[in-house]
Design brief:
The protein is an alpha+beta fold. It has 17 helices and 22 strands.
Amino acid sequence: MPDAVAHVAVVGGGISGLSAAWFLKTRSPGTRVTVLEGSDRLGGKIRTIELAGLPVDVGAEAMLNRRPEAVELARAVGLGDRIRYPATTKAALWTRGAIRPVPAGTVMGVPADLAALAESQVVGPDGLARAEREPSLPPMQVTDDVAIGRLVAERLGPEIVQRLVEPLLGGVYAGHADRLSLQATVPQLARFVSSEPSLLQAAERARAAAPASDAPVFAGLDGGIGTLIPALADASGAEIRTNAMVRELSRTPDRWRLVIGPTIRPEVLEADAVILACPAAPAARLLASVAPAAAADLERIEYAGVATIALVYSADAAPKPLDGSGFLVPPIEGRLIKAATFSSVKWGWLGERAAKERLLVIRCSVGRHGEVAELRRDDADLVAGAAADLAAALGLTAPPVASYVQRWGGGLPQYAVGHRALVERVRAEVSRLPGLAVAGAAYDGLGIPACVATAEAAAARVLSSVAS
């Protein structure tokens, strides 16, 4: 296309869509890029608000630092001097009447060190004895994808699932361990499950195979992860449009045709290539007429609605200093919150600002797949419930002085058994169509680095298609 400027439309203005736009412009500066976001704001599930005069993340609050994509992107868009690492990563579980340390040597809740499990007292004597018998069971015979919760329950007993796997795995996916895919959610363990006779031995192998690194596991940004969004949008150089809902996608003989806006005032946009960087349901709707098999598979991906409750307390409300980065709550405990993060303890940049005002910042998360009753409560009720749980767990002596509830309806895709095979089928069908690619959290991981990686791959694919 020597005499024309290629035009790529990116559907979705979250981290995946904006990253795709950035990769497109940096790898092909002459490309015209238009980002179409259906809502009135950019960032998707990344958002930083001001609460009691402090910047508080109410969506994603960290990037996996040991995976390079997100941190490298932050540096590339000018935020390198704002990268910060947690002051503490010591995590705990609120279970069996106390806040107890997460036992060392677990692989997403699957124990690899029974001595550490016993020392933590996260499970009771019967649960520990059941786990200790696992090596004497008949050898595992896992040849295909399975639900991790069911496998762990069969091998190590239900208490390990209830008090370890559910809070750790469910804390990431807001899902249920007896439905989540082993291959898609814990691939580092899945690679050994088919070759080891014992699940404990597979977990030991997975721990031993993890690359040794002194680098911090997570990274954040001074001022909040939300600062990445405007920096990325500006650096992309793309034309960015909000309130631009894409309703239809079709193929002309040599281009793509997108219909944008309300039915009574439709706008048609043509592009040489399209990246669908939106959740599975809208992607399925847009693919229905051009890639129906991919659309059918994407329709099978379910989502969990969740809410983040940000609470600011007077420092005097805590009878003793908060210890560690926070705690997870097993669903079996019957509490409203599933996790609490001591944000002003975990992040030094936030702690310094909060200390000047004699404040504490704690984030709570609520909601799991298929459990909607809690999310139907109004904001005041959610705040009161979260505050009551924190008071019971930490002995807080006063209510919060400020609060904010951020609801993420359909926020987290559920990686059910067979998810990796589903994603392979989707990509195979989409790849048959010139200049079309998909990206986002629905495919290879929920974290920011995984989303950035899908965006980079999608940008490379459509640029190759346009060039040819």
